């Protein structure tokens, strides 16, 4: 039998009646506590990296910079590459997994959500999981939102305020709601 975390990693829906749901809730409670602590006390970049490393369960490379406040609901399914920059007030809902490759820049107020809910009213509390992948050297502009299942291609730019609901090809700029390709380079 697999654990709830293995089922989540495999993209299976997350239901409150799962026999292991209490284990998931424990991680969420820990993450909330550690995020509040990090945002209230970390005054140096090394401290932020240290706190966030504890939240995500893996060491963050010293070349990566995160400006607090930073928010996540689970934390353990975030993977950050080298030389990543994450500006103030970003929110990563990572239950479905978020992977950010090397050299990525993320503007202030960006929201990455790898989870959604069923459209079926009878099953609305079920959480549907789809990973977000941001490839090397991408730039996510201020206030952009990336929705579940999106891949942002290498060197791509997501304009400020865009809502990305489908994959972004490499070497393009997307803008708008929903985001569409406005430039290729």
Automatic annotation (TrEMBL):
Domain of life: Bacteria
PROSITE patterns, alphabetized: HEXAPEP_TRANSFERASES
Example of a GO MF term: O-acyltransferase activity
The entry's keywords: Acyltransferase, Repeat, Transferase
Pfam family, one: Hexapep
InterPro entries: Hexapep, Hexapep_transf_CS, Hexapeptide_acetyltransf, Trimer_LpxA-like_sf
Matching Gene3D superfamilies: Hexapeptide repeat proteins
Coiled-coil residue spans: none
Membership in a protein family: Belongs to the transferase hexapeptide repeat family.
PANTHER family hit by this protein: ACETYLTRANSFERASE C18B11.09C-RELATED, SIALIC ACID SYNTHASE-RELATED
Organism of provenance: Spirosoma sordidisoli
Protein name in UniProt: Sugar O-acetyltransferase
């Amino acid at each position: 039998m697999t654990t709830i975390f293995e089922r989540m990693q495999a993209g299976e829906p997350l239901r409150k009646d799962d026999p292991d749901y209490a284990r998931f809730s424990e991680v969420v409670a820990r993450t909330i506590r550690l995020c509040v602590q990090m945002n209230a006390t970390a005054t140096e970049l090394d401290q932020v990296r240290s706190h966030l490393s504890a939240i995500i369960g893996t060491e963050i490379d010293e070349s990566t910079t995160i400006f607090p406040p930073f928010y996540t609901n689970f934390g353990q399914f975030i993977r950050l590459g080298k030389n990543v920059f994450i500006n103030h007030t970003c929110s990563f809902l990572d239950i479905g997994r978020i992977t950010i490759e090397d050299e990525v820049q993320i503007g202030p107020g960006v929201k990455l959500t790898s989870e959604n809910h069923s459209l079926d009213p009878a099953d609305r509390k079920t959480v549907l999981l789809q990973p977000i992948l941001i490839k090397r050297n991408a730039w996510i502009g201020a206030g952009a939102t990336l929705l579940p299942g999106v891949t942002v291609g290498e060197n791509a730019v997501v304009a400020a305020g865009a809502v990305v609901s489908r994959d972004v090809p490499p070497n393009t700029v997307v803008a708008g709601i929903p985001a569409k390709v406005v430039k290729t380079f």
